[in-house]
Design a protein that fits this description.
By secondary structure, the first copy, chain A, is an alpha+beta fold. Chain A has 15 helices and 18 strands.
């Protein structure tokens, strides 16, 4: 029996797509298509439930077929790009069993839940699920857990993993296992939960999770500062950290990003003088959240410290304006892609006080390798999205961008930084961890992989440490 | 050359104590001496620096000698109790290199730093290091990381691991490795950092860490509610969670704990009518923190919700009164030990809404096995310190307590709870994880141990999953 028929016999023909059929195309790439990456697969399996995921996994493991787990397909590192002959296991139909237990500040979330939907459903009940990756409108919680996704508000609230108290995961050779659950603390065993979170589907497939919630803050207000130089922007970031306010988010965007995203900024910040948006070299957004009174005071403090060295400070207070600003912030990435018809989007982390230096180096590398660059990111966390803007059909340009990115990773790791803050390694950053970790840790990385996946069938070729 | 001389040649004779000498005695037990546990060792090594830890580890690994890492010796699970012929490696002299970088909200902490000293040093600089285990006056950060220690304020702020951004650790066969560092986010590799945190010295020895800080909250005020029944206390806990306030801590103590700790409570809560402290069955402490205004409002909200069903609500506002209350809370554990001259202190986690049920079962088990019981703990996290009070010389009593504890673990795991929230497994809870985890996860636990420690020399016999 053909592979597709075998899988159909397990989970139903309506849940299996032949890899060479036209509907399969939507499952062969992710956001790395902006850098011309996509793959091929023998079949796409879209089980309705965790048991279906388990069955397909068990079948693949028994038949030595590679398994490529897939969430919402919004990754930037090719983690969900399938390899020839593999079976993609998408969790998008795992949507049954979203159960709120708000009295105990928690929720059970099936892996196919859209991030923004979880946030909205929580908010309706007076609760807050903080992680807010830029792709939240399409990303799935399963993918968020597999990549340990971040976002602007993880500065105050921590990344996805900070909110997971229990994991439901299919492990090799095809077993559905629960680690943790409703409990908020647990030091009984080694922290296999954290080991699985961020493992990009190379150790197992997340089918669901118990997650923590907190009461929704009453209010949240951003303050936007426009600065004439990268150095002035860096100073503003450090001034915010020294202000005594513990902001929910501290973001930045450089001039090149502003230029790419400018057409949509007008709507986001109505009434802002074009001479400011047109000339600012560095923009900082800091947001205070909490009770209304507290936010009002923190906002005043932020305005005061952010005025130092600023060309302008904009502090929207109307709900619609605030929403528009964050919505604009979320689409910056797509606006930048649109500019050149593609981009090589890197995602590095440096100590927060070295953002300006790093941004300058990104631009220098871009100039030297003849690739336009722009940077934005989660300033408070030192997490920079360094973008090399290249049309995806420009092979030579892509090669130059890859060289520039490699030099960037060398610099970042030389100052104690990390090669990925939230996008993961996938295929585009394979071997880059070797710049960052000592040899002994790289050995352990490989051995841990073998322990979980002795046949090497879970997302093969991804997240290779060296 | 004798083992002690070999070690002295490596790290200096002033840093090595012969296992059979009288000064060694201070290193052969931990708080499990209250249940009559202590061990023996060939030698105690107290290196001055991480390189010394590395040298001793390498020597032991090469000579097949077991290594027992030791922090402040305040553990409750025997994790630091050495086995015959082993070398204890204490990190108490690793105190050089406490370096604050408050402008970037972080600090480098050598493993020998006392927890309370780190908290105090941070506070002097206007910053806050939240984890506050009851033993903070003597526990060391190295031990806190090895056990992933908690405390009252981890309800809002997370356990020790939440604050570690980089680990310096000696791994087999004797290599000093750094994983992470100053960066606040990192998803490049598998999360080996989290795997090491809470591994109780069975995977490596922590010599230092980069840790995160936050600006110190301006104020913190507790509200204490006294309730006539366990059920009324449970309702109060859930009322606090439903209040919209996000408290920094939610603690509880039962009547039996109050009785044991009563002699010191009068000083902690001056002016409190004895008819209340003498009759309350269940006490809840909730603390609000933040700006002064915010805390004042949250305190009013907490008082309002905690009055429902209460015999009395006490809300100290003077700094000295608040300090006295938390100091009293920290010494409850010792007060309870004093009552019977020993205790079997367990440390379980249940879903927060099942605290009352669990407390009732602890008392039932105590009655059935003829051991006095008392419970207190971190209510918000569902983390109960269930204590079976037995004199440490009463062998039959200790055996009955062990039976009662085992039945308690069976109950706890049957409702999705955890066998340890902050004390770890050590030797006293070996094999208890098998009640909680599926077989596949237990296999992985054993395999991960082999990957890190192929010779099985790191803290052998501790944290056994089954």
């Amino acid at each position: 029996m053909a592979l597709v028929d075998e899988l159909a016999a397990l989970i139903g023909s309506g849940n299996v797509i032949a890899g060479d059929s036209s509907p399969a195309r939507a499952y062969l790439g992710d956001e790395t298509e902006s850098r011309a990456l996509s793959g091929s697969a023998a079949a796409i399996a879209l089980p309705d439930d965790a048991e279906g995921v388990r069955q397909v996994t068990a079948w693949c493991y028994a038949h030595d077929v590679a398994i490529v787990p897939r969430g919402g397909g919004s990754g930037f590192s090719g983690g969900a790009v399938p390899s020839e002959g593999s079976v993609v296991i998408g969790v998008e139909r795992l949507t049954q069993g979203l159960e709120f237990e708000t009295g105990s500040w928690r929720v059970h979330v099936p892996a196919g839940t859209i991030t923004a939907a979880l946030r909205e459903q929580a908010r309706k009940r007076g609760f807050y699920y903080p992680p807010d990756p830029g792709s939240q409108a399409v990303s799935l919680i399963g993918g968020n857990i597999a990549t340990n996704a971040g976002g602007p508000h993880t500065f105050k609230y921590g990344v996805t993993g900070s909110w997971v108290s229990g994991l439901e995961v299919v492990l090799a050779p095809g077993e559905l296992v629960q680690i943790g659950g409703r409990v908020r603390k647990d030091v009984g065993g080694y922290d296999l939960r954290s080991l699985l979170i961020g493992s990009e589907g190379t150790l197992g497939i997340v089918t669901g999770a118990w997650m923590k919630l907190i009461p929704a803050p009453e209010a949240a207000l951003p303050v936007v500062g426009f600065y004439p130089s990268t150095e002035a922007g860096q100073a503003a970031i450090l001034n915010v950290l020294a202000s005594g306010v513990a902001p929910a988010a501290v973001e930045f965007l450089d001039a090149e990003t502003m230029e790419a995203a400018l057409p949509t900024l007008g709507e986001a910040i109505p009434g802002l003088p074009p001479e400011v948006t047109g000339t600012a070299t560095f923009v900082v957004i800091a947001e205070a959240d909490g009770s209304s009174d507290q936010v009002a005071r923190d906002r005043e403090d932020l305005i005061a410290v952010m005025q130092a060295g600023a060309q302008a400070v904009h502090a929207p207070a109307k709900r619609a304006e605030v929403s528009a600003l964050w919505l604009w912030r979320d689409v910056v990435s797509r606006a930048v892609t649109a500019r050149e018809g593609g981009k090589v989007s890197e995602d590095i982390v440096v100590p927060v006080e070295r953002i300006a230096e790093t941004v300058r180096i990104v631009h220098e590398l871009g100039a030297r390798h003849r690739v336009p660059t722009c940077n934005w990111g989660h300033a408070g966390d030192g997490n920079i999205h360094a973008n090399f803007m290249v049309n995806r059909n420009d092979e030579a340009g892509l090669a130059r961008a890859a060289e520039a990115a490699h030099e960037l990773f060398e610099f970042v790791t030389s100052i104690g930084g990390a090669v990925s803050g939230e996008h993961g390694i996938g295929i585009v950053k394979n071997h880059m961890l070797a710049l960052q970790w000592p040899s002994r840790a790289l050995d352990l990385h490989a051995q841990v992989k073998r322990v979980f996946d002795p046949k090497g069938l879970f997302n093969p070729g991804k997240k290779l440490a060296r």
